[in-house]
Amino acid sequence: MRQPNHHVLKDPDNGVADLIFTAETVDKWPLVISTKFNVPYLLYKKHYGKKIYGEIYSVDNKMRNNMDKFESHPEFYTRTKVQVQLDDNNDTVIDVWAYFIMDFKPQLLDLETYDDYNSYGSHGLQYVKGCEQDDFRDELLRIVLTIKVTNRKRPIEIN
């Protein structure tokens, strides 16, 4: 079953995205599910949580820019390189981009961590449509310490 936001990658108006590999992170990271919308969040705390398993896509610049916008980079998430080991049985390690929350509230680390995200998984925390709406910002303020608001001159932080 397709994940709720998979349509973003498949929309040709957003650019090109081709699935090329599945892989697992070399390091452990906390992947948690939080807010009333059951959104998965990858927290920037290396060596905590689990190795994350997922899909690796090759994207063009247009898709990357649209993904940055979709993921609210750099206001909320920060796109950061991580190393992954490919599922090709020959120990190939490459650098890929992932979207992390850098400045999160410490209580998020008390949540259960996952090694992948499936909205329809056994955790029973199905993604709730509507997190794109305005009240989602209130939910974000419950989990992050800082949201960066960018303008053309300089970033501003809201605490």
TrEMBL record:
Active site residues according to the UniProt entry: 71 (proton acceptor)
Gamma-glutamylcyclotransferase AIG2-like domain sequence ranges: 3-117
Name of this chain's protein: Gamma-glutamylcyclotransferase family protein
Highest classification ranks of the organism: Eukaryota, Metazoa, Ecdysozoa, Arthropoda, Chelicerata
Coiled coil ranges: none
Entry's Gene Ontology cellular component terms: cytosol
CDD domains: GGCT_like
Family: Belongs to the gamma-glutamylcyclotransferase family.
Alphabetized GO MF terms: gamma-glutamylaminecyclotransferase activity
